[in-house]
């Protein structure tokens, strides 16, 4: 087959993929990039306003509150998820009876839709008639139940639900990393008299460094961008207590359906600018983490 | 020393079982709750149902329109799987086996879309495009967008493609088989395991997708998928009094993916574990 024929055949085979990627992948990104300099509400004509959207962001207290909430949410989620996932992976990596089954159980939440689980958790945590509160009251553990989705505890509840869905995922990634550590290192260290905990501290942790750096990076980005479960569970409420960056952003594009009164009109131009700033914030955090964690990458 | 190890083991198992309990309990509550009456469910007094109401499913199926939602979910997921596998295996084949100008650019484009995911932002222009194509009030818009996000499957299939010996299809080409015929007759059958993993990943993603179908069905409730229909029950006027339907619906939406996961558990675990190595 000559070169021209091969090229023609290749283009015909790659065409569907390339077309879909360009039209539905690349073009939308370019679209958002353009409109962040426009005042555009989704109808009528777009008006070029230069940097006005970005000046508005600086004064948008709702947005900056959502940024603060995002840090609380992401920080809380990571503090629960990462140590737990690491611990479970370390335990399940060694010869333990039933570890396959336990791995299967712990990983299970990640195959279930976050939206569906958020609905279920809503019926469990619901302050009135919620299953958990009914249980607490009936068993005499609490007089009137806990206002799980109220202003005081909503963020905690949202974090717990998010952690429930995420631990198994990071456990699996840690397990993959642990399996790359040669068995003889453990044998040598146990000959030297190291116990399980010492082995974890002086063998597992240092050798897992590079994988850990990568996994935590992934976890940070996912946590900063996550909002699907919050959207179903609390819609950002009550009074914006669980409004996170990417949920706020979503509401700028699709105000319909959201019950929270935070945003009521479509704001494509402003939304694009908010998206850009949000992406930059995620990028900056990732970079800071990357440089701060370089030590992890040095295995010695 | 011996006593310490025994004690350590006991603590270890208490921890593991407690965590397994926390992981399973919401799912168990859902499954058991789907057989309770609404009153029993909201009273929260029982763990096992007083009596098993299998009729919840029949009623959720008919009254809460879950037959429609399930059908929509199936259409979206299966079409997304077929489309994604087709589009990305064809691309993976020519990228791995053929020479043509722009190959590097194509690979660059695919990795770019994989790393730059801006969620809600791209959803808006994607929706506008579908309006122009008159696909915004059908599930085809959702399906096309799901298929367009095939970058990760393309890379997975590419790595499987490298494992198929080149001699095989080179020999076929020598014998006068056209490259298209070689792809259908020789490459695709050999790509079986890769296609299986790709199918599971795509099915999981499409079946669980929430935002895309939500946006595309805002004006057309009859097009809602299971995830959307279920979440919307929460907002409905009658939702507060129909928790048992929500539980039955949640089970309808969880069970297929759970069964697929249990069957594929072993190869799936190895695959995900393997994908991090190298």
UniProtKB/TrEMBL annotation, chain B:
Spans traversing the lipid bilayer: 12-35, 74-95, 107-127, 139-161, 182-203, 245-264
Keyword check for Cell cycle: no
Entries under InterPro entries matching the protein: MetI-like, MetI-like_sf
Keywords: Cell membrane, Membrane, Transmembrane, Transmembrane helix, Transport
Keyword RNA-binding carried by entry: no
Compartment(s) of residence: Cell membrane
Bilayer topology: Multi-pass membrane protein
GO CC annotations, alphabetized: plasma membrane
Chain ranges of the ABC transmembrane type-1 domain: 70-264
Top-rank taxon, per record: Bacteria
Single GO biological process annotation from the record: transmembrane transport
Family per similarity comment: Belongs to the binding-protein-dependent transport system permease family.
Record protein name field: Carbohydrate ABC transporter permease
């Amino acid at each position: 087959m000559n070169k021209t024929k091969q090229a023609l055949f290749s283009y015909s085979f790659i065409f569907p993929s390339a077309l879909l990627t360009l039209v539905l992948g690349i073009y939308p990104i370019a679209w958002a990039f353009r409109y962040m300099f426009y005042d555009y509400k989704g109808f009528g004509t777009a008006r070029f306003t230069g940097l006005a959207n970005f000046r508005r962001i600086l004064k948008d207290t709702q947005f900056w509150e959502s940024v603060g909430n995002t840090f609380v949410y992401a920080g809380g989620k990571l503090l629960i998820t990462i140590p737990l996932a690491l611990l479970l992976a370390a335990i399940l990596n060694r010869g333990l009876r039933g570890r396959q089954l336990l791995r299967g159980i712990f990983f299970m939440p990640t195959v279930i839709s976050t939206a569906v689980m958020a609905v279920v958790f809503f019926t469990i945590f619901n302050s009135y008639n919620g299953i958990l509160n009914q249980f607490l009251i009936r068993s005499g553990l609490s007089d009137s139940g806990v206002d799980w989705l109220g202003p005081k505890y909503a963020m905690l509840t949202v974090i717990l639900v998010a952690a429930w869905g995420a631990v198994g995922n990071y456990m699996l990634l840690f397990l993959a990393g642990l399996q790359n550590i040669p068995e003889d290192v453990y044998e040598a260290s146990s000959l030297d008299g190291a116990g399980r905990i010492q082995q974890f501290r002086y063998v597992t942790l240092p050798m897992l460094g590079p994988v850990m750096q990568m996994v935590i990076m992934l976890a940070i980005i996912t946590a900063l961008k996550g909002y699907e479960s919050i959207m179903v569970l609390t819609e950002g409420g009550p009074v914006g207590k669980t409004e996170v960056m990417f949920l706020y952003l979503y509401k700028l594009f699709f105000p319909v359906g959201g019950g929270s009164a935070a945003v009521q009109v479509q704001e494509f131009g402003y939304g694009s600018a908010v998206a850009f700033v949000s992406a930059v914030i995620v990028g900056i955090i990732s970079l800071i983490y990357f440089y701060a964690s370089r030590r992890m990458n040095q295995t010695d | 020393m011996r006593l310490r190890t025994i004690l350590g083991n006991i603590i270890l198992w208490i921890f593991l079982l407690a965590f397994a309990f926390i992981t399973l309990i919401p799912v168990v509550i859902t499954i058991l709750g789907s057989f309770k009456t609404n009153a029993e469910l909201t009273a929260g007094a029982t763990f096992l149902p007083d009596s098993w109401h299998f009729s919840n499913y029949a009623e959720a199926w008919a009254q809460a329109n879950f037959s429609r939602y399930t059908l929509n979910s199936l259409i979206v997921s299966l079409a997304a799987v077929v489309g994604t596998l087709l589009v990305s295996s064809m691309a993976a084949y020519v990228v791995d086996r053929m020479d043509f100008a722009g190959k590097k650019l194509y690979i660059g484009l695919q990795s770019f879309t994989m790393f730059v995911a801006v969620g809600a932002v791209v959803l808006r222009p994607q929706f506008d495009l579908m309006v122009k194509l008159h696909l915004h009030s059908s599930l085809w818009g959702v399906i096309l967008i799901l298929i367009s996000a095939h970058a990760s499957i393309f890379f997975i299939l590419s790595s499987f493609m490298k494992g198929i010996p080149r001699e095989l299809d080179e020999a076929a080409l020598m014998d006068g088989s056209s490259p298209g015929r070689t792809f259908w007759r020789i490459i695709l059958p050999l790509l079986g395991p890769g296609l299986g993993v790709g199918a599971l990943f795509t099915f999981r993603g499409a079946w669980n997708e929430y935002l895309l179908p939500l946006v595309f069905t805002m004006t057309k409730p009859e097009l809602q998928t299971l995830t959307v229909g279920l979440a919307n029950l929460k907002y409905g006027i009658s939702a507060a009094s129909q928790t048992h339907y929500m539980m039955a619906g949640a089970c309808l939406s969880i069970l297929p993916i759970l069964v697929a996961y249990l069957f594929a558990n072993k190869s799936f675990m190895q695959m995900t574990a393997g994908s991090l190595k190298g």
